[in-house]
Write a structure and sequence with these properties.
The chain is an alpha/beta fold. It has a single domain, classed as Glycoside hydrolase/deacetylase (TIM Barrel), CATH 3.20.20.370. Helices cover 38% and strands 17% of the residues. The model has no long low-confidence stretch (mean pLDDT 93). Catalyzes the cleavage of 5-oxoproline to form L-glutamate coupled to the hydrolysis of ATP to ADP and inorganic phosphate. Its EC number is 3.5.2.9. This is 5-oxoprolinase subunit A. Forms a complex composed of PxpA, PxpB and PxpC.
């Protein structure tokens, strides 16, 4: 592989509370998954982050999650399938409204946290996210964790879908991420993360914490914007990828609103 996108979860501030260094990370990544007011974010943060992304030619996507600020969207909320549809549609629509105000454009949807993990394993949840996304705009693409039900659901409906892997998360032999409450869930060392990614991109096989490496597809690499050292991780990963001859470029071409 000679080309890969680098994305980050951004716009996760709320009121006076800051989360990460979005402005600096937007100088490094090529796509930005922007919180839509559920797990994090507010109208001012959405508009500001979209404007910053647009100025830098960074492609923007919606990052809907459970309305659970206290748990940062990382606790499973047992919604009905209809409620999942409503959550994704309204949050994505809210970000698109903010984008209109910021002179930007939302191009794709990537579920956040526990919602993404739920959709990874449960096809009805994945289907609900796809229906909601298509209802808001058939032009939106899906960014899905590689090898998951969400990825399969998007492909089965003919949607444009891109697959992602994670720079800073450990993998199980099932293809799922190591739960955050278990050892080796997080990779904090940028050198370790970059080495693993370059090995994956040359072989197509992702190392796991409990077995042999597994095959995964990838159009994008995620660096979590809320992690300690997120900026250093993103900078180091991008530099090492480029040194290895891998072009870092968005999986969707920037539009005039992103330039």
């Amino acid at each position: 592989m000679t080309k890969i996108d680098l994305n980050s979860d951004l716009g996760e501030a709320f009121g006076p509370w800051r989360m990460g260094d979005d402005k600096a990370i937007l100088d490094v990544v090529t796509s930005a998954n922007i919180a839509c007011g559920g797990h994090a974010g507010d109208p001012a943060t959405m508009v500001e982050t979209l404007a910053l992304a647009s100025e830098r030619g960074v492609v923007a996507g919606a990052h809907p999650g459970f309305a659970d600020r206290e748990g940062f969207g990382r606790r499973l909320i047992p919604l009905s399938i209809r409620e999942v549809e409503q959550l994704v549609a309204t949050q994505t629509g809210a970000l698109m409204g903010a984008a209109a105000l910021a002179g930007a454009r939302v191009r794709y949807v990537k579920p956040h946290g526990a919602l993404a993990n739920w959709a990874a394993d449960e096809r009805p949840v994945a289907d609900a996210i796809i229906r909601a996304t298509r209802a808001v705009s058939p032009e939106l693409a899906i960014l899905a964790i590689s090898g998951t039900e969400l990825e399969h659901a998007a492909r089965d409906t003919g949607m444009t879908v891109f697959s992602e892997i994670f720079a800073d998360r450990g993998y199980l032999s099932t293809g799922r991420l190591v739960p955050r409450n278990l050892p080796r869930a997080m990779i904090d060392d940028p050198a370790e993360a970059a080495s693993r990614l370059i090995g994956y991109l040359s072989s197509g096989l992702m190392p796991t914490v409990d077995g042999v490496p597994i095959p995964l597809d990838a159009h994008s690499i995620c660096v979590h914007g809320d992690s300690p050292g997120a900026l250093a991780m993103a900078v180091h990963v991008r530099r090492e990828l480029q040194k290895a001859g891998i072009e870092v470029a968005p999986f969707l071409q920037p539009t005039k609103e992103n330039r």
